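Moderator note: this is an archived Q&A kept for reference. The question asked for a predicted structure of one protein chain; the sequence and the answer are reproduced below.
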Amino acid sequence: MEGSSVRPPAEVVTGFTVRDPSFWLKLTCWAVVGFSAVQIATFSFGRDQSIYAVIGDGVLAGQMPYRDLWDFKPPGIFFVYALAQALFGKSMAAVRLVEVLVLLGIVASLRRLGGVFFENRAVGLVGGAIAALIHFQLDFWHTGQPETFGGLLTLLGLVLRVREPRRRWLAAFGTGLLFGSAALLKPPLGGGAIVCAAYLAQRARARGGSTRRALAFAGMVALGGALPTLLTLLWFWARGALGDLVWTLGEFTPGYTAVSWHGRSAAEMLYYAIEEAFFGFSAIAAAGIIAAIAMRPLHAREREGIFLVLGVIAIQVAGIAMQGKFFAYHYGATLPLVAFIAGVGLYKLWMRCLQGGIGGALAFFSFVIVAALMRYPVGDLPQSAWERARIRLAYLLDRPPYTDRPAMDRDLAYVADYNLDADRRVALAVRQLTNQNDSIFVWGFEPAIYWLSERRPATRFIYNVPQRTAWEQARARDALMADLRRDPPRIIVVQSRDVFPFVTGTRTDSRDELPTFPALATLLDSEYRFVKSIEDFDVYLRDE
């Protein structure tokens, strides 16, 4: 009756009366997202994060990637770390706070996609919770990576594309701009723009537009996609560092990629990448994928949305296969997209279980809990994901023995040959033996020592992979020795047991490589004296 104050009746599901049948599901999802965000905020640095932090710090000081501080990742990740340290100061928490914001942006984007294709944001929220759970379980080593941040840009590009804005030309350009920015973090991530351009052209034709108009929209996406790379190249050219960028990304990086292709076929690698992306990281995600395919569509646009997301996934998975390394973090941008599809399936399963009343809802949550314990994204850490979460919560609550970050890191921040606690002890020794203006050099793969000791590198090569590879070794060694002659380091640290055949192409460590590098070995023997050993590191001090 018009004007009546009588409330509409509650939605009734067999045996279970609720106003919002997804209330408890939503509450659980937000709890998972919040818990994951808290965990991520406590992550310390792994080896790669140390590289990005050192170079990001240098960018803030006016130095240029590749020319002044060297790594072979695309430049976007250095901008992210520079921004994080500019916003939150020089600390390990800085980039993790940005990462938490990125995670929340991913959840918001997935909810938006759920609203567009299902008229129900809860569908996207379930996917967001799956993505958050996987992300926190990837832990400190496989997060804070280029794919982590590129994943958000990919999703924002999708959201901008599907929201049907009034200014379609500007939205097309913005979509390209977002994917182009993602390409600065990882080039294959930019390929999603191709899928979005095709989707945009198809939608334009569906509205009765001409082929010329559809191609014009695609052209705007391409123009936006090219702009970030063009501006970056102009910046490097203006700063006199374009040649260093070209050598690193155009000559060194292809050799690094080729190491993984020996004796392996493209079909084999692509199959492995697909299998890992959809089923290798989470039993919950795998179950959701199966449910999404097996159960009836929830909405008329469901297949449209899933096919669009699958198109972007296809481009990204092809890029992962081309790299051939299959490190867990390489999937960082793809897993939220996979989680979205898995969220569709789990939401369908939830709605089906609700037909069984409270018992059905309890069965659903029981299944999710069991699935969460079935499989973890990584298996090389010393504790389970949940034991590591307990230790981090103890740190946050200031409970002994985890009353400070170093105490927590002693139990958590090590994997394979990497040990952040050892880096801290070496950095402390370096600080005690040097003055603030002294430079140091680490012959090894531990850039964290520079960052923790707050001593400047004597060379652009903050780790020695280029000098240990076969394809660019001579040039890299000559450049290193030129740097060391210009700025003789007060201390040289030599590392042992840092063996990376998938990176260097050899099974020797830094100590073993010294006899093959006479110029550096002679410098060390003639001008430096041994001071002490700390775990895998030998510390040498220059004679005065």
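Archived answer notes: DSSP finds 24 helices and nine strands in the chain.
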